[in-house]
Design goal:
The chain has four helices and no strands. The protein is mainly alpha-helical and about 100 residues long. The protein folds into two domains: about 45 residues, no CATH class; about 45 residues, no CATH class.
Length: about 100
Amino acid sequence: MHHPNESDLALYAGNDLSRFARLRVDWHLRTCGKCQQEVTEFSSQRAETLRNAPEPEVNWDRLAAEMKANIRLGLEAGNVSLCRRCIGDTPPGRGPRWQPL
């Protein structure tokens, strides 16, 4: 019998496997008590870690605003780069110089 590796069992316990990998481990766990026990242990360890972990002080509204600003900045930088490829760097007062891509 081929057992899933330890990292797959841990990811399964945390519900962090891809759909296909989760189905594969699910299938194995139906008949393997040893792996079922490992998943139970990983789940217990995860729950205990979450219970004992200090709650970080996070200003979620500020974090969301910073992330949105960074995304906008990245999109704008990408658009500027694309425009420069299309029209080239144009000196002030002169029309665009169209360049083929």
